[in-house]
Write a structure and sequence with these properties.
Oligomer: heterodimer
Strand content of chain B: 15-25%
Distance between the termini of chain B: 30 Å
Radius of gyration of chain A: 29 Å
Order of helices and strands of chain B: HHEEEHHEHEHEHHHHE
Strand content of chain A: 5-15%
CATH architecture of chain B: 2-Layer Sandwich
CATH superfamily of chain B: Ribonuclease H-like superfamily/Ribonuclease H
Structural class of chain A: alpha+beta
Largest sheet of chain A: 4 strands, antiparallel
Number of domains of chain A: 3
Number of helices of chain B: 10
Number of helices of chain A: 25
CATH topology of chain B: Nucleotidyltransferase, domain 5
Helix content of chain B: 40-55%
Number of domains of chain B: 1
């Protein structure tokens, strides 16, 4: 006969379940957790309750937050309060004090109605002694640990397994791919160089200075022999320096193949010299890297470039998610991935508009296809609404103006149609080249920006921000450059404009309900979901934009803007590092979320259901939000309201 | 002598456990700070809601001391009903007939419970109902009723709502749901599985902790303050 459990044998299941969900308790076995749970007490602290006072409170328990949230802060002699941290569900309070045997080092106050499990100090210390892994968790640097574990968790648990895609882009370094160095003197004849290549069966050879063998001055490839010599009927006896390409672009031998591939694709240079310790040790080609893997971004890239019909691009564009999936699985950082997405999208666009020009005839005046918003920042993920515009050179006459208007109207209409068929949805706000307002000559565009900057209307500015992130997608880059120069000049001198921009940025406050259940939307289609873009990423983007405009930095990519700001010392190293990390983590989360949706056949969006978020991810989000708080305080100091 | 009385308790003095408990609460001081009292939050599951026919099938309880839930001392027992006929309730309660057949009898469980709650105030959500069945059982088995003062979290929640809405605001308690689930949602409490005596007791304990600390923050610092604030409980049921 099964007897019911006795009073003291009842295991508090809910406490065990709680522990199983949080670090580092999830590493303990069931028996230990059951014992642990039975030693716990549960307490409730209404919002605004002081739990610990720095330097005073002796810590008798480890507090584990079950529901709610607290802030940690210090207060100096003058009563000035400095916020140190927010901690939410699953986080702990008091570990440091218990381990060191000192009173609390921070003031802790609840910012929400908060329930905590209290684990007695002695039990906690006992665990620290008995379970090395458990102890290590607390002793190791917190953020580093979280970031690493989080990346691994994201990679291994979030994506379903597929066979045959063990790729090496992120583990192999180009130094490992380089074959024996082949080089010739710049003074030898073309024929001698070709003979050398034939003898060693290589497709390219480096060219060194005829007096200094270590000084690499150029490269010749099969293609040079074909185009510049044979096809052009050039004299074989001329020295190779006549046909070589130089200087050679170099990469460091320790560079990851992924980075090198990225470099090759963005510069369209397929032979790079590999350098180690200041010496060139060989050449790496896109082909070498390509051989590493079958289903690669590079194949897709080649296919796009070789496409002769616009309709052929439709299917290729749809292949992008599959390629990106491979990269995520390999552990690419979000910054790299969005860059790769941008490059692939750019190539689709480039090929399409080139073919379209063939179809419609050359444009009457030079033009530049502008990419705006996230495309302009090279931060697209899978779901990318079209945000684009056309900027063309000022026509000289009225007649030329009419011709230009007619041409670009037809051009835009077709381009947008093709892009839709490629899977880029229309922009609901009509910010596209087909909108006559956004298909204009340079002088009109300059006026647009001057108006936004000199007479800022907060309402209008809200919609205009995506224009400030424009970049050239295709066509005459010089036009985009001129416009950027104009914009930078105007923005820097208009503090009131930057003030509005900064204030607008800060209006996306971090509601405290984050600690209960995340910042979730209270109604509408996405009720109770977390908008990763609006709540998480946008504050970073806005921050970087304000500071970039303030300091005349032309970059549009958020990470690049932050890097540039740090390089010239406008932000401190520590702030830059944590901002960078937080932003990448958020992007990563969003990418994985969207990738999963695509795999499930759902239209990707930015809305994460907090119920499906693990303790780790919750932590990461919490950390990221703490960074936003700091960015705001920087802006607040720069542009105070009072 | 005592043994004799125990066997035929309905003739004379109740069981000494009940007697001790009664004496404990005879000159009970309501004026001490809240944290000094011991509370037992309990919930019972029944074969049905017929006050005459139905009986207890499980009792779950958790102890609150120092205004904290003490997870080291929880009470959870199934009770074998005298009649297995009323089994429709078992579906709701997620208790299998086997569990009930294997459970201890009320004669075994109820005195244990009385011992467990000795010296504590009883807390429950709609406590009156639980008290009815508990007292029915103690009367039968132990020859008397419980003397523990009770606090009803449902009435506490109604009182809290009155404070929140302000005294000038006309408020009809019937317009709002005061079910345990709905209150847990409203106050954003951690949520437990319903229809399990222990889980429901825990849910009620969270609610009680929430309300009593909110009251305390509002200036009600002794048990007397709580009792007087809005008929949230009484000394007798």
């Amino acid at each position: 006969m099964v007897k019911s459990a006795d009073v003291h044998e009842v295991a508090p299941e809910m406490a065990v379940a709680f522990f199983k969900n949080i670090l580092p308790f999830n590493s303990l076995d069931d028996g230990t957790l059951n014992r642990l749970a039975r030693h716990c007490r549960v307490d409730f602290y209404p919002k605004g309750t002081r739990l610990l006072t720095a330097g005073e409170t002796d810590i008798t328990h480890l507090y584990l937050i079950q529901r709610g949230g607290v802030k940690a802060f210090i207060e100096d002699d003058q009563g000035k309060v400095t916020l140190k941290d927010f901690r939410g569900e699953g986080a702990y309070i008091g570990a440091l004090g218990i381990i060191r045997g000192t009173p609390a080092n921070l003031n802790i106050e609840t910012v929400e109605d908060t329930f905590c499990f209290l684990l007695p100090r002695a039990i906690f210390l006992n665990l620290m002694e008995q379970e090395p892994a458990f102890a290590q968790y607390y002793l190791k640097s917190f953020s580093e640990k979280i970031v690493k574990t989080a990346y691994n968790e994201l990679r291994h648990h979030k994506l379903s397994k597929r066979s045959g895609d063990d790729l090496y882009l992120f583990s192999v370094r180009v130094g490992d791919l380089v074959k024996t160095l082949r080089k010739v003197s710049s003074a030898v004849s073309i024929q001698a160089a070709a003979a050398h290549m034939a003898e060693f069966r290589v497709g390219s050879v480096l060219v060194h200075d005829h007096e200094d063998e270590e000084n690499i001055v150029g490269i010749i490839t099969d293609r040079d022999l074909r185009l510049k010599v044979v096809a052009a009927g050039l004299d074989y006896n001329l020295p190779v320096k006549e046909i070589m390409t130089g200087p050679v672009k170099t990469v460091l031998s320790q560079s990851l193949c992924f980075d090198v591939l990225l470099e090759m694709m963005s510069s369209s240079i397929h032979h790079l010299a590999v350098e180690r310790g200041g010496r060139v040790i060989g050449v790496v080609t896109s082909h070498d890297i390509m051989l590493l893997q079958g289903h690669s971004p590079y194949y897709l890239f080649k296919e796009i470039r070789g496409q002769q019909k616009i309709s052929g691009l439709y299917a290729l564009a749809q292949k992008i998610p599959e390629v990106i999936r491979g990269l995520i699985k390999e552990g690419a950082k979000a910054g790299n991935i969005t860059q790769m997405i941008a490059i692939l999208n750019d190539h689709i666009l480039e090929r399409m508009l080139t073919l379209l020009e063939d179809e419609l005839g050359p444009p009457p005046v030079p033009y530049c296809w502008l990419l705006l918003g996230s495309e302009g920042r090279r931060e697209q993920t899978f779901k990318t609404d079209q945000d684009n515009a056309i900027l063309y050179a000022d026509p000289a006459t009225d007649e030329e103006k009419d011709i230009a208007e007619t041409y670009f109207k037809a051009f835009a209409a077709r381009a947008i149609g093709h892009l839709v068929k490629c899977g880029y949805p229309l922009c609901p706000g009509e910010i596209m080249a087909t909108n006559p307002k956004w298909c204009q000559p340079l002088s009109v565009w300059k006026n647009y920006f001057s108006t936004w900057i000199n007479t800022p209307d907060p309402e209008e500015l809200l919609h205009a921000t995506i224009f400030f992130d424009f970049r050239s997608g295709f066509g005459d880059r010089a036009l985009a450059k001129k416009l950027r120069k104009h914009l930078n000049r105007e923005a820097r001198k208009q503090d009131i404009f930057l003030f509005h921009l900064a204030r607008q940025c800060m209006s996306t406050r971090i509601p405290l309900s984050f600690f209960k259940n995340f910042i979730v939307d209270k109604d509408g289609e996405h009720k109770n979901q977390l908008d990763m873009k609006r709540r998480g990423l946008t504050p970073f983007v806005n921050f970087a934009r304000v500071l970039a405009l303030k300091h005349g930095i032309s970059e549009t990519n958020t990470l690049a803007r932050l890097k540039a700001l740090f390089d010239v010392d406008f932000i401190k190293h520590e702030l830059w590092a944590s901002t960078n990390a937080a932003y990448e983590l958020l992007m990563q989360q969003r990418l994985i979320h969207q990738l999963r949706q695509i795999e499930e056949g759902i239209l990707p969006d930015n809305h994460i259901n907090p119920e499906q978020v693990s303790d780790l991810e919750r932590r990461m989000l919490k950390d990221a939000f703490a960074v936003i708080e700091r960015l705001y305080s920087v802006l607040d100091k720069m542009y105070p309201t009072a | 002598m005592f043994d004799l009385l125990k066997q035929k308790s309905w003739f004379g003095r109740p069981d000494p456990l009940l007697q001790e408990n009664k004496e404990f609460f005879l000159d009970f001081d309501q004026g001490r700070p809240l944290a000094e009292y011991s509370f037992v939050v309990c919930d019972t599951e029944l074969t049905g809601l017929n006050k005459k026919k139905d009986e207890l099938i499980s009792i779950g309880a958790v102890r609150i001391t120092d205004l904290q839930i003490d997870l080291s001392s929880m009470f959870h027992h199934f009770v074998r009903p005298e009649s297995m006929a009323h089994t429709q309730a078992t579906l709701v309660h997620r208790i299998t007939p086997e569990q009930l057949e294997n459970a201890r009898s009320a004669e075994e469980v109820v005195p244990k419970f009385v011992e467990y709650i000795h010296g504590s105030l009883l807390v429950g959500h709609h406590l009156l109902l639980d008290m009815h069945f508990l007292n029915k059982a103690t009367r039968k088995i132990m020859g008397g009723v419980l003397s523990n003062p009770g606090i009803d979290t449902m009435r506490m929640a109604q009182g809290y709502k009155r404070v929140q809405l302000g005294h000038y605001h006309e408020h009809n308690p019937r317009e709002t749901s005061y079910s345990l689930d709905d209150l847990a949602q409203e106050y954003n409490l951690p949520v437990f599985k319903p229809h399990d005596a222990l889980e429901d007791a825990l849910q009620t304990a969270y609610l009680f902790l929430y309300l009593i600390k909110k009251f305390r923050k509002g200036g009600l610092v002794t048990l007397k303050d709580i009792f007087q604030s809005g008929r949230v409980g009484s000394l007798r049921y």
